[in-house]
C-alpha cells in the first residue's frame, strides 16, 4: 500500500509540474500576443478595414516621444524613427556605420508645446571622423584624374566584420564630361554603403539636380570632386543624405585632391 501511495504521489506531483509548465508557457504566449496587439498611436477607428496598412507603415517608421524624466534610449536596430521632442520633430537613423539625430521641424515659441523632453542633434560615425576616409578619397581622386575628361565614381563601404572602411570600384557603364552611369554592386551582408563619391572632371564640385534626385531616399555620405584637370582649382562638396534630408559636411579640398608635385 505504501508503494502504491508513493507512486500516486509521484504521479500527481509530475502531473502538477506539467500543468504548471503548460500554464507558464500559455501565460507567456498571451503576453506576447497582447504585446503584438498593443494599439499604435494612430488617429483612426479600431474597426477601420484599412488600419492594418497604417499600422504596418507606423511599425516601419514609428513616432515616439522623447522622455522628459526617464533616460532616452537610442535606436539600436537598423532603421529610422521620428522623435517628438519639446523643441520639435527630429529624425533618428541607425545604420551599421552611422547613428544620427537631426531636427526636421522647430516648434513655434508662441504656440503650444508638447510635454516631452529635449534632444540634442548628433552625427556619430562608426569609423570616428570623416578624415578616416581621406586615403580612399585620395585614391579615388587619382582614378578620377586618369578618367579625365569624363566623370568617375566609386563607393567606400563599411565592413561590419572588420570594423573598417573599404574601397569598392564600380563598373561604369557610361561616362561623359557631364554624366556617369554605373552598376550598383551587390554588397555582402556585412557590408553597407557609407560614402558614394563621383567626380565632375574639370568642372567645379557641386550637387546637381540629378544628384539630388539620386540621393533622395538614401542614407549615405555623398561626395563630389571637381577641378581635377591640369592647372585647375580642386574643389569638393560633401553631405550626409538622410532619406531626402541633406546635411552639409565640411571637408578641405586640399586634403582630398592633392595636386601631384612636379617631377
Automatic annotation (TrEMBL):
Residue ranges annotated for the JAB domain, each copy included:
135-230
Membrane spanning residue stretches: none
Its protein name is PRTRC system protein A
Kindly give the InterPro entries that the UniProt entry links to this protein.
Answer: DUF2016 (IPR018560), JAB_dom_prok (IPR028090), PRTRC_protein-A (IPR022499)
Any one Pfam family match given in the protein's UniProt record, by short name: Prok-JAB
Q: Keywords in UniProt for this one?
A: Hydrolase, Metal-binding, Metalloprotease, Protease, Zinc
The scientific name of the source species is Paraburkholderia aspalathi
Domain DUF2016 stretches = 52-125
Amino acid at each position: 500500500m505504501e508503494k502504491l501511495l508513493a507512486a500516486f504521489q509521484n504521479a500527481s506531483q509530475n502531473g502538477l509540474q506539467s500543468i504548471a509548465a503548460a500554464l507558464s508557457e500559455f501565460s507567456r504566449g498571451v503576453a506576447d500576443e497582447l504585446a503584438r496587439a498593443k494599439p499604435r498611436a494612430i488617429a483612426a477607428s479600431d474597426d477601420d478595414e484599412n488600419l492594418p496598412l497604417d499600422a504596418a507603415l507606423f511599425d516601419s517608421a514609428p513616432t515616439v516621444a522623447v522622455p522628459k524624466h526617464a533616460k532616452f534610449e537610442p535606436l539600436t536596430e537598423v532603421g529610422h524613427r521620428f522623435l517628438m521632442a519639446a523643441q520639435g520633430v527630429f529624425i533618428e537613423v541607425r545604420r551599421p556605420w552611422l547613428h544620427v539625430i537631426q531636427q526636421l521641424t522647430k516648434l513655434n515659441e508662441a504656440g503650444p508645446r508638447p510635454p516631452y523632453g529635449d534632444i540634442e542633434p548628433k552625427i556619430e560615425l562608426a569609423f570616428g571622423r570623416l578624415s578616416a576616409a581621406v586615403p580612399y578619397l585620395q585614391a579615388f581622386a587619382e582614378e578620377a584624374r586618369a578618367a579625365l575628361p569624363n566623370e568617375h565614381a566609386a563607393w567606400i563601404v563599411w565592413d561590419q566584420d572588420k570594423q573598417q572602411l573599404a574601397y569598392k570600384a564600380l563598373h561604369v557603364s557610361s561616362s561623359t564630361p557631364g554624366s556617369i552611369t554605373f552598376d550598383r554592386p551587390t554588397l555582402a551582408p556585412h557590408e553597407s554603403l557609407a560614402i558614394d563619391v563621383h567626380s565632375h572632371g574639370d568642372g567645379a564640385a557641386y550637387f546637381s539636380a540629378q544628384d539630388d534626385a539620386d540621393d533622395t531616399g538614401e542614407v549615405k555620405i555623398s561626395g563630389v570632386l571637381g577641378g581635377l584637370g591640369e592647372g585647375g582649382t580642386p574643389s569638393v562638396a560633401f553631405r550626409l543624405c538622410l532619406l531626402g534630408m541633406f546635411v552639409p559636411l565640411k571637408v578641405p579640398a586640399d586634403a582630398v585632391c592633392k595636386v601631384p608635385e612636379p617631377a
